[in-house]
Amino acid sequence: MKIERKKSKDTSTLIFEGELTIYNVSQLKDELFADYDKLADKIALDLHAVTEIDTAGVQLLLFAKKFFSAIHKSVFITKSNESVESVLVALDVNSQFAR
Questions:
Q1: What angle separates helix 55-70 from helix 25-33, to the nearest 10 degrees?
Q2: For residues 93 and 57, is the Cβ–Cβ distance under 8 A?
Q3: Hey, what CATH topology would domain 2-97 get?
Q4: Terminal Cα-to-Cα distance of the chain (whole angstroms)
Q5: Element (H, E) at 14
Q6: What's the whole-model pTM score?
Q7: What stretches in the chain show pLDDT beneath 70?
């Protein structure tokens, strides 16, 4: 799993690729919050290349949402895929990441 960062004028896009599971969530947490102060005020999560997500991955996304909201940054999902959407809907958290 890796996270690629792209920045436009007012939005930072974080592109997740690979598995977002308990097996790599600790590494991803470090990568996600590295240089967080350099991210734009709007943070778009691109999850279309996530091959697998579990509850630990969802917890990381929810923690990121809470953390960034506390420092006045908005977080939303810009792209997703069917497997990610089904997990977010099943856990009833998809509305947390709407624009």
A1: 20
A2: no
A3: Transcription Regulator spoIIAA (3.30.750)
A4: 25
A5: strand 11-20
A6: 0.93
A7: none
What integer pLDDT is reported at residue 8 of this predicted model? 93
Which pLDDT does position 23 carry in this prediction?
A: 96
CB 46 within 8 A of CB 8: no
Identify the sign of the CA torsion 25, 17, 63, 11.
Answer: positive
Query: At a CB cut-off of 8 Å and minimum separation 6, what does 27 contact?
Result: 1
**Which residues make Cβ contacts (< 8 Å) with residue 34, sequence separation at least 6?**
none
3-state secondary structure 28-88: HHHHHHCCHHHCCCEEEEEEEEEEEECHHHHHHHHHHHHHHHHCCCEEEEEECCHHHHHHH
Q: Using alpha carbons, select from 71, 58, 70, 41 the residue that is nearest to residue 97.
A: 58
Confidence at residue 1, expressed as pLDDT on a 0 to 100 scale: 85
At a CB cut-off of 8 Å and minimum separation 6, what does 98 contact? 76, 77
Residue type, 30: D
